[in-house]
Amino acid sequence: MNLSDYLRILRRNWLLIVALALAGLLAGGVASIMTKPTYTAETQLFVAIQSSGSVQELQQGNTFSQARVESYVQTVNSPAVLQPAIDSLGLDLTARELAAAVKASTEPNTVLINVAVSDNSAVQASAIAQAVADSLIKTVDNLEKPKTGGASPVSLSVIKPALAPPAPSSPNTRLNILAGLLLGLAVGVAGALFRSTLDSAIRGDSDLRKVTDAPIIGAISFDQSAVKKPLLTQTGFQSPRAESFRQLRTNLQFANVSGQAKTILLTSSLPGEGKSTTAANLAIALAQSGQVVCLIDADLRRPMIHDYLGLDRSVGLTTALVGEADIDDLLQHWGEDGLYVLTSGQLPPNPSELLGSSQMRTLLERLELAFDVIIVDAPPLLPVTDAAVLSQSVGGVVLVVGTQKLKQRDLEKSLTALELVGAHMLGVVLNRVPAKGPDAYSYGYGYESTEHAAETPKRWNRSGTRSASQKQAALPPLQNLASSEPQRVVEERPPRVFPVHDSN
User: Fold this and answer.
1) Which top CATH class is 39-160?
2) Spatial separation of the C-alpha atoms in residues 330 and 339, rounded to whole Å
3) Which CATH class is domain 205-445+453-487?
């Protein structure tokens, strides 16, 4: 992965990172509040050689004292120094317990000894530090005193008395909060990277490219209002969602530049990825461009086209396939453009056999003679084999991928299923793509409403569709499945029920 991939991961998981950073910040603050304050009192002693003489003797004495200072520092934590201090203050501690609170040190190339004592009481810390310093002076004097008698050649004196500290030395609230914040950020970033390794959902084009190099011919931005208003005609003409389908229409024409794929099948890997709404809106967009379009609901298990378009599905595709009615009498005109819809009809018990039959291929061949484009809404690939079977009878396949929903392994299975049957893959449509964020794919461009109204081509009305006077004239006649006599395409037909088992 490159830097942009890591940045995308961090942007995807920014909420997790911020939450853990705030948790670390809170933990640092709570730790500071819950920790009992500790005060540190310090005192400083000077080591001197009690002798007078020449400069050379003084220099030798200074070197001697510096060499002895290290030994005196180690002596501070010994019972010989600490026990007298405990006895003098009447502390309820042992020498070992007090040694944990006493820290002695020296500065390099000096004869200074620093003694620091930590305690929960500022006054007691200063008292212990002073008592330890006094005890160290006496202990060194006794240790350095010659056995033959006389004064000790080394003299220790306090040059910085121990005072009660005005503020606690710990906890350091600022340091704890900063450490908690940094630790939370580190855990958040690590969690985001770990989560990305486990997350195989397709969230954008970067995840799609890990599975396939198929061209992305469209990216439909997510719109919450599309749940109640899924159709292209129910949204604003200048809305990003409407522009997404117009861009899909244009890209599909380039993907099918040879024009061989006159019948285009739309499917998905799993239910709920938005294939039916994509098929319906693509058909509407193609019809708005002036083409004569036929939309077929070939999902004979869970048909949805009739619900979106408000049509009757009592008779439709299955009616024609079993020979109960002619296709001319089943097509329903929709809208003010050249869009004709063939609903699913009654749900049969054998949808795969019907979709893979010779009658289905013959029906598509007849429709290709009369329509510019035929859009087929097929069932998902993974649950059933209907789409794979039907893909052999169409000119091209468009796979709808629902972001945030589909896993990479499921997409791989779908592509493998299409490859096994030799389907002609036109491209992939990313559906439910975020309008903003790291996985945004589309670009927005705003128009002034008044200017746009003035610049709108005359052949379109304000709703984005052609007026009734500008509708395409008569649709080319279709040939009957059983006879060669031309038939008339009608807009509506009273429902006709035929004896086919309905799985609902």
Assistant:
1) alpha beta
2) 14
3) alpha beta
Please list the residue range(s) of the chain that carry CATH number 3.40.50.300.
205-445+453-487
Residues of the chain with CATH 3.30.70.1130: 39-160
Kindly list the distances between the CA atom of residue 221 and the CA atoms of 59, 149, 206, 274, 402, in Å, as whole numbers in the listed order: 85, 98, 16, 12, 11
Token readout for 210 is 């890990």
DSSP string covering 122-159, please?
HHHHHHHHHHHHHHHHHHHHHHHS-TTSS--SEEEEEE
Q: What residue has token string 């304000």? A: 462
Tokens 């010779």 -> residue: 358
pLDDT, tens digit, for every residue of 356-415?
999 999 999 999 999 999 999 999 999 999 999 999 999 999 999 988 888 889 999 999
The identity of residue 490, as a single letter, is V
**CA neighbor of 369 nearest in space, from 486, 477, 471, 264:** 477
Query: CA 326, CA 342: separation in Å to the nearest integer?
Result: 12
Q: In the 8-state DSSP scheme, what is residue 437?
A: S
Which of 137-146, 323-332, 393-402, 433-442 is predicted with the least confidence, judged by mean pLDDT?
Answer: 433-442
- Residues 157-207 pLDDT 10s: 999 999 999 988 888 888 889 999 999 999 988 888 887 777 677 887 888
